[in-house]
């Protein structure tokens, strides 16, 4: 069997699938960079933010803080864990979208 050279030409890049965060413009990288860089007088105090992702089957909430290397997740809450607490149905409806972030707040321990 002969050697086949890998060619990344126009046809390859037409069907190339970029990562979802970049392809769907979920992250504004310039704003994120400006947000991470802060006053030196504040030393190493991290800035926390809440990230909410809604899919067809689940709602995910995370508390994260930014570093220059990338984000670090402090804690997370998912709607698929709500049946443990008595919620049997409607894990992606409007009520669940309000419940999951409130359920996340006592979990995070930010000093």
Automatic annotation (TrEMBL):
MF annotations from Gene Ontology: 5S rRNA binding; structural constituent of ribosome
Say if the entry is tagged with keyword Transcription regulation: no
**Annotated Gene Ontology cellular component terms:** cytosolic large ribosomal subunit
Keywords tagged on the record: Ribonucleoprotein, Ribosomal protein
- Tell me the Pfam families matching this sequence: Ribosomal_L5e
Record keyword Ribosomal protein present:
yes
Q: Which InterPro entries match?
A: Rbsml_uL18_euk_arch, Ribosomal_L18
Q: Tell me, what is an example of a GO biological process annotation in this record?
A: ribosomal large subunit assembly
Q: Which family does it belong to?
A: Belongs to the universal ribosomal protein uL18 family.
PANTHER family linked: LARGE RIBOSOMAL SUBUNIT PROTEIN UL18, RIBOSOMAL PROTEIN L5-RELATED
Descriptive protein name: Large ribosomal subunit protein uL18
